[in-house]
Amino acid sequence: MAPLQVTEARGVKIYNVSSGKTLPEWLSEKKKKSLRKDEDYKARIELIQDLDFECASNRIKFSKDGKFLAAVGMYPPQVKVYELEQLSMKFERHMDCEVVQFEILSDDYSKMAFLQADRTIEFHAKFGTYYKTRIPRVGRDMVYDPESCDLYVVGSSPEVYRLNLEQGRFLKPLSLLAEASSCLDRSSVHGLLAFGTDAGVVECWDPRLNKRAGITDVAAAVRRSGAPDGGGEVTAVRFDSDGLKMAVGTASGHTLVYDLRSSTPVLVKDHYNSLPIKDVRFHHTGEGSYLLAADPKIMKVWDVSEGASAERREMFASVEPPADINEITVSPASGLVLMACEQPRMHVYFVPALGAAPPWCSFLDSLTDELEETKRSEVYDDYKFVTREELESLGLSNLAGTGMLKAYMHGFFIDAKLYARSKSVLEPFAYEEYRKQKVREKIEAKQGQRIVLPQKTKPKVNKEFAEQLEQSRAKVQADIAETGKIKSGDKKRLSAQSKVLTDDRFSAMFQKEAFQIDKGSNEYRLLHPSETAAERRVRDGDDEGDDDDDDVALDHFDAVESEEEEEESDDDDEGLA
Fold first, then answer.
1. Helices 463-483, 488-502: crossing angle, 10 deg rounding
2. Does an H or E element contain 279, and which?
3. Which residue, among 279, 362, 259, has the nearest Cα to 319 in the 3D structure?
4. 282: Cβ–Cβ under 8 A, 6 or more apart, which residues?
5. Segment 429-442, tens digit of pLDDT
6. Cβ-based neighbours of 518, under 8 Å, separated by 6 or more
7. Per-residue pLDDT tens digits for 143-183
8. 291-322 b/e (C-beta count within 10 Å ≥ 16 → b)
9. pLDDT attached to residue 162
10. Given the DSSP bridges, would you call strands 317-319 and 5-9 parallel, antiparallel or unpaired?
11. Residue 351, CA atoms < 13 Å, CB-side half-sphere
């Protein structure tokens, strides 16, 4: 089997690098040995060892130098750092509380800050935990400004907390117009800060002056695009690397792209899931610029390059993992996408259309080349295709237009588990019939393996003639067995009889009705005069048999009268005279 699962849509191939089976640490040695025969386990690809958590992963980031990968998850709350050149985990550390967000302060992993759910900010160095401090309100997001060494934290209050790491103290907070803020980002080009608020507004601040630089009403832009719910709060915000564009995600599932020189969005996209956008990112390659936006169910990619076709702007690619998405990250200048999901495993996808494989896993390019030789069609393992008529027969037609059904061609894709449950309710005894059928198939398969003696099939035409030939052969063979000698006549008879029964030239005689022997014909009676009258009566019936015998005899001979009949005839002649 192919080592990677690949799906293709709109001409873009997406390889699932984390599709194979994983090996739990608690697995016994006996079970590990038994997995040597498991084809799925042998064909797995483990891109980075131990790229998973006990329950779920919350956040995932690359270090600035691109040599390390850090991720936080639970349960228990912990952080794992991976060395990419070695494709393995460097270390893991446990924490006292769940991590909401974290920032890598240095170029490598040596300095990190973790925002925890209990209002604690925990700082780590190479050796481990370095310092802890608390903020007045529960934090939701944070970002680090390396120019001023300020750590900005937003949360369930209009204040943006500023912690200066050089001075080691809190500075005067920034005051937003909204009651709370859910996300923020900093541009690496001009240093502008963008805060996404619960009021559906993005506020941009200049950290050099600590003043508001502008306000963008995202909710109003979503309403103008035709969305009835008005967009809701801003859940994700991200600056582009060129410093001119900004992407915003809303709670209604809309993604907007702004040019900072205009208050009108240049692009508005709807995920049609009515789920909040979890993360948005810009990605640049030598072929173009792309926008990645992820809600809990799916990540969608749009081509935002200048001069991109309308089709590519409509949708370039999409990735739908088996678990809810918490955060996405992309390896710089490559097509490798990593996802932190509500599942023990962190999912890894390789999209060659977004770029080549990173230098630390360049072997992915050769694997995809091998897959080109053995193409696979797209398979929906978790979905069942049903027509509209089948949907109505299942009583699920009211689900049309909801997220439970995916419209496709002349029908819908429905979740396989939901289809099975509906089918079991509609046909409660279908499983029992299926089980009985499988049992019968297994029994017949076992019976087919038995040694069966060949049985001679009797012909449908001239059955009696074939039986006579068989009896004659058996009688001759019995005489030969008793005497131990073969007469010349018996040898010829056996040869002739065997040819009639086995030679293909005579096969039509025992297969076609046109060659059926008619024992009631005159030709047959002339060729078989030794047939007794009793046999004819048995064959033709008692009454008809006597008449037929008399008719045949009178045709060939004159009737002979008895003496009594002659006397009676003489008396009759005298009386007439």
1. 150
2. strand 279-284
3. 279
4. 238, 240, 241, 245, 247, 289, 290, 291, 292, 304
5. 666 777 788 888 88
6. 524
7. 999 888 999 999 888 899 999 988 988 999 999 888 889 89
8. bbbbbbbbbbbbbbeeebeeebeeebbbbebe
9. 92
10. unpaired
11. 24
